[in-house]
Write a structure and sequence with these properties.
alpha/beta; Spermidine Synthase, Chain: A, domain 2; Rossmann fold; 2 domains
Length: 283
Amino acid sequence: MELWFSEKHTEFVKMSIKIDKHLHGETSDFQRIDIFESYEFGRFLTLDGVMMMTEKDEFAYHEMLVHVPMAVNSAIRKVLIIGAGDGGIVREAARYATIEKMDMVEIDPQVVDACKRFLPKTASALDDARLSIYYQDGLKFIRKAKNEYDLIIVDSTDPFGPGEGLFTKEFYGNCYNALTDDGIMVNQLGSPYYKNDAAAMKRAYGKLAGVFPIHAAFQAHIPTYPSGHWLFGFGSKKLSHLDVNPNWDNLGLATKYYNTQLHRGAFALPTYVNNLLNEEVAP
């Protein structure tokens, strides 16, 4: 008997992946957690039946969320990571010896436990000595922080369910207050392609743009996410997203997706995406 995982991207579009086995399944206080072994994408994590990451293509998502801001500001020392229970963001950030402290806020400890057990390649740095994990609501955590972090990375689920509060203007305003003067915030915005996804992406970007004086969206190709075309948000108080530190390449970090040439190109968006974003932030 063939086993397939299927996720509806729209009412008329479905993605299916043939799986070898169901490795883990549980229901936490917040969501349904499943981990599968697949033939094409290796192991992958779903929450409430929605794809979060696969071993084959997670590098694009995690590298872009970490290395884009790190290449802009080489003075980043203290990092706040909201969400990111699979550990991929921590793994990439931990590669920088210059980072002194990482605070990770994840609402669901069972996601972290499951990923440590079944996704060790992604969760490999969750025991890093510089990392402190707080199991609580990121929206509440950020309210207490003032001028504390050089970088905030929001690796949330989509703006529904447990992740919904991380796409509000209040949340972005609290992130602004939590950042130092040279601070940067990055987050995932979703896909601009399908109608409902594009509407959610526009709302999230509009709220980001309404708080940060310097704001932009950048993109990556992630095959297992809806449409494969994914956007991220960049917000800063004064640092430009296009000012790449020329010394980044000298760090010798081996990456599979990110490079400094791609960095600038990632902010060059298709016309239809620019039109969507301009509609949202137009005065």
